[in-house]
């Protein structure tokens, strides 16, 4: 019998269908019973996992946040709903990147047949 501790990070790695989600749900319910005033963050890899967890009756609904790691990081850095307000600081044309990085000569070096085909046109 494992008991999750407050502040502990729990990661479960197992094959599909082994009960990872059920195990995490049990741990979350256990934590909320012991620490009713604390919040739980459950990070998942994909949106499908997020939706399944949010719709599941296994997880506690109060004081629990279920997010993809990507969504959590975006919210952490940009705040809720501010994702579209991010403007690039510098606009660079692809040609400039190719020139600065000398990509053309590197590509020709890696793929010499491309140079031959270019001359044949």
List the helices and strands and how they pair.
Layout (H helix, E strand, L loop, with lengths): L19 H15 L5 E5 L2 H9 L8 E5 H10 L15 H7 L2 H8 L1 H9 L1
Parallel strand pairs: 1-2
Helix pairs in contact: 5-6
How does this model look, in words?
The structure is a single chain. The protein is mainly alpha-helical and 121 residues long. The protein has helices at 20-34, 47-55, 69-78, 94-100, 103-110, 112-120, and strands at residues 40-44, 64-68. Helix 2 links the parallel strand 1 and strand 2. The radius of gyration is 24 Å and the shape is elongated. The termini are far apart. 6% of the residues are buried. The model has no long low-confidence stretch (mean pLDDT 78).
Write a concise keyword list for the protein shown above.
mainly alpha, 121 residues, 2 strands, 8% strand, two-stranded parallel ribbon, 48% helix
Order of helices and strands: HEHEHHHH
Question: Could you give the count of β-strands?
Answer: 2
Proportion of beta-strand residues: 5-15%
| Helix share bin | 40-55%
Overall, the morphology is: elongated
Quaternary class: single chain
> What is the overall number of helices?
6
Strand line-up across the major sheet: 1-2
Major β-sheet, in short?
2 strands, parallel
N-to-C CA distance: 72 Å
Global mean pLDDT: 78
- Given the helix and strand composition, which structural class is it? mainly alpha
Low-confidence stretches: none
What gyration radius follows from the Cα positions, in whole Å?
24 Å
């Amino acid at each position: 019998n494992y008991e999750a501790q407050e502040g502990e990070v729990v990661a479960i790695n197992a094959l599909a269908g082994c009960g990872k989600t059920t195990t995490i749900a049990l741990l979350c319910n256990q934590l909320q019973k012991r620490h009713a005033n604390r919040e739980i963050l459950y990070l998942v890899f994909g949106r499908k996992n997020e939706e399944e967890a949010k719709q599941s009756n296994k997880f506690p609904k109060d004081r629990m946040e279920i997010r993809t790691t990507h969504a959590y990081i975006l919210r952490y850095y940009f705040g809720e709903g501010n994702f579209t307000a991010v403007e690039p600081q510098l606009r660079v044309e692809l040609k400039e990147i190719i020139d600065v990085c000398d990509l053309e000569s590197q590509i020709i070096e890696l793929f010499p047949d491309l140079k031959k085909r270019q001359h044949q046109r």
